Amino acid sequence: MKEKIIEKATDMFLKLGFKSITMDDIAGEMCISKKTIYKYFINKEVLIAESTETLNRTVMNIIDSIIAKNYNPIEENFEIRRIFKGIFQSTETSPLYQLKKHYPEIYEKVVNTEFEECYKYLVHNVEKGIAQGYYREGIHVEQYSRMYYMLTFAINENIKSEKEARDLELAALEYHTRAMSTPKGLSELEKQLSNPNI
């Protein structure tokens, strides 16, 4: 039951916002009593904390599954973008923005966890891109990875509108990719940008 509550709560938080959803809303949606929810979660903050941890694991599993498909590095980044666009498309307000504003302690924990895991992926992507000839040799892998992470993270924590954040994320991805790309990489970038589903 605990896992089902987390799953439903996470879905509702992403669709309608962390602040606006109440324990009553979750109980009503699941056709259970609020008492049942409180059996597993002492308050809404604990439920949000566990929901964000579950969401983070889901995100990392998705990234791992995309990496396993052995796309080229640019295609890989765009495929991750497409998957995440599907996950967050029903949200009007950026989830990270909501957490920062209403639940700063949970936000700090999410930030620390996400940075470690996403940074490792970004470094791997840049190294793979250099090895496969999509990115230029001689670039500072750690610096480029860190700059791109900081740019996308700043967008998500400071832009309220999820749609605006997604548009800016795409601009950041293009900027990041162009800065590193060889002619081969630029050709792949143009191919990805021409896809109407980006």
Helical residue percent band? over 70%
Whole-number mean pLDDT: 89
Strand fraction equals under 5%
Form type: elongated
Question: How many strands, which pairing sense, and closed or not: the largest β-sheet?
Answer: none
Intertermini distance: 36 Å
Pick out the low-confidence regions. none
User: How would you name the CATH homologous superfamily?
Assistant: Tetracycline Repressor, domain 2
What oligomerization state is this entry in?
single chain
Number of domains: 1
**What is the number of strand segments?**
0
In CATH terms, what is the fold-level topology? Tetracycline Repressor, domain 2
Structural class: mainly alpha
Following the backbone from N to C, one meets helices and strands in this order, namely HHHHHHHHHH
The count of helical stretches stands at 10
Specify Rg, calculated over alpha carbons: 19 Å
GO molecular function, one term: DNA binding
Keywords: DNA-binding
Pfam families: TetR_N (PF00440)
Organism: Flavobacterium noncentrifugens
Would you mind describing this structure in some detail?
This protein is an all-alpha fold and 198 residues long. The chain has a single domain (48-193), classed as Tetracycline Repressor, domain 2. It is built from 10 helices and no strands. Helix 4 packs parallel to helix 7 (104-132) and helix 5 packs antiparallel against helix 9. The model has no long low-confidence stretch (mean pLDDT 89).
Question: Which features does this protein show?
Answer:
198 residues, Tetracycline Repressor, domain 2, DNA binding, DNA-binding, HTH_TetR
